[in-house]
Amino acid sequence: MRAAQAGDAGAYLDLLRMITPRIRGIVVRQRGFTGTEAVEDLVQDVLLSLHAVRATYDPRRPFMPWLLAIVRNRLVDGARCYGRIAAHEVGVEDLEVTFAIPATNSDRDTYGDVEALHRAIQSLPLRERQAIELLKLREMSLKEASAASGVSIGALKVATHRAVAALRRVLRGESQG
Amino acid sequence: MNTNDVLERLARDVEPVTPLPRPWFRAATWLLGTVMYFGVMALMMTPSTDLVANAAGRSFLLLQVAAIVASVAAAGAAFVSVVPGSSPRVLAWPVATVGVWLGSLVPGTIREWSSGAVSFASQTEWPCVAMIVLGSLLPSLGMTRMLRHGAPLTPRTTLALAVLAPAGLANVVACVSHPHASRGVMLIWHGSTVLVLVAVAAGLGASILTWKSLRRVG
Question: CB pairs below 8 Å between A and B: how many?
């Protein structure tokens, strides 16, 4: 380390190669459960920290207590960081729903009681029933429905809006009744 | 990045560094500059004859000696705390000396309070508070700058000590700058100001002394 402080790159590389397995061993013992990548991240963090504070090493004192103090400190910081992430992280792959309201998560686009829906459509006034049949059941565009029925696009829009509101009223009333 | 690549890159970029002097030597260097700073400040704020009169009295002098010892211990402990592998027992010194310093004010405060001789509510010491806060600002910034060359192993404690050391000395200047007859007032105003500053510094420590900032400095 004394040579490394003097700028000897070869000696520094030898030292780093010598201590890295030992640092990895300590990290694996204490944080092995976090996985290989996290362990390597911590080992690299220790090495970068050691490099940053190499001026604090006193050549008159033993090297290992100095190194182990840095390792311990980085491990504690790493554990805190891991705890913070674990506390706030949500595993999206485990989510069964994507929204809080159950109805929003339904992948079905059809009404459950087809018979009731059919009855409700038949009970609509002629113009509204026609608009629903052309636009919703036959899935025509407004332009096509207008050409087929001879009703203007604006009138079709109004009729559809009214029909949907009426169907909602009727079907809600039926389901509650 | 692969760990082997990190090793090679660190070794390739290594530059010569001068080992930091021993912590107590660094503390002595800082104390020398700070004592001169506060000395000039005390002389500028108070005529020398008043200075002698204000500092008279054995118990008063002992109190100031306790504050100075607490400051010296805090400065030393702050510099020790940024050296990996140092004994954490050194951190007990400032705690003990601050305990002695503030604790020595307690008996006098209790006596004054029980006798009703001093009305604590009516006596304010805002100039002393300003003196302690503003006076300790520059030296604590200086010490923080010096501490950033060390390892931020205990950033909250280190920064708290970096504020305690000059605040204790600023308290001495505040004490001798004008007469303080009441121990209770000193404890309430001076003691609580120092403790609040230390608490604020401890709160900020983790965001000021960080490994990331150190890597930028390095």
Answer: 97
Q: What is the pLDDT of residues A137-147, one digit of tens each?
A: 888 989 889 88
Domain ranges of chain B: 21-217
Q: How many CA atoms lie within 13 A of A22 on its CB side?
A: 10
pLDDT at A177: 54
Q: Best interface-test mutation with B: which of A56, A60, A63, A80 has the largest number of B CBs within 10 A?
A: A56
CA B15 to chain centre: 34
Residues in chain B: 218
Q: Tell me, what's the ipTM? A: 0.80
Please indicate whether, in this complex, the C-beta atoms of A54 and B12 are within 8 angstroms of each other.
Answer: no
The Cα diameter of chain A in Å comes to: 100
With an 8 Å Cβ cutoff, the interface of chain B facing chain A consists of 1, 3, 6-8, 10-12, 14-20, 22, 82-86, 149-151, 153, 211, 214-215, 218
The phi, psi pair for B54, rounded to 5°, reads: -65, -30
Give this prediction's pTM.
0.72
- Helix ranges, chain B (H): 3-12, 23-45, 48-54, 58-80, 92-103, 106-115, 126-147, 155-177, 183-185, 192-208, 211-217
Residue B108, both tokens: 């006098």
Distance of CA B68 to the CA centre of its chain: 10
The answer to whether A53 faces chain B, any CB pair under 8 Å, is: yes
